[in-house]
Amino acid sequence: MSAHDRDTFEIEIVGLKRSLPLFEIKPGLKIAILNILGDTELVQACAAALGKALKAVKFDVLVTAEAKSIPLAYALSVETKKPYIVLRKAYKPYMGAALIAETFSITTGEPQTLIMDEKDQDLIKGKRAVIVDDVISTGSTLQGMRMIMEKAGAEIVCEAAIMTEGERARWEHVIALGHLPLFTE
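RESULT FIELD:
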């Protein structure tokens, strides 16, 4: 199936319209994919809006998981003047005595590993962290980030995302700019 033949879901977020392609993740269930990689206009606008929403939150550092939310964490770091940390999905030897958490991704149906580089552990220990993601859907990445923050000795003071997805009530505590439904047949 080509991109032109794929069903889409139209959104308007921070005054910008986007057509999100729908992908089947298991029989009878599709999700709308928000891919912010390369969409500088959307990333900057979302970072500005989330930055305003985070003004009331007292925090020291932003934390995200690779890869799609890295541009958002960077732009939000510039917006808030706070550093950011990226939790990696694969260990590299230069990461030293890294902290590791493993969760199960419902979206991919496979285990997901998150790793905090040794160099970031001093930056986060004893600090107030905001977890940042592009879309919070099943919560598996969020769970992994929470596990790493606990191991690192950080306090999570807020969770923020461009969009939440699925059961809206589950994500009421998250600062989000919008919500995506699940598409069932």
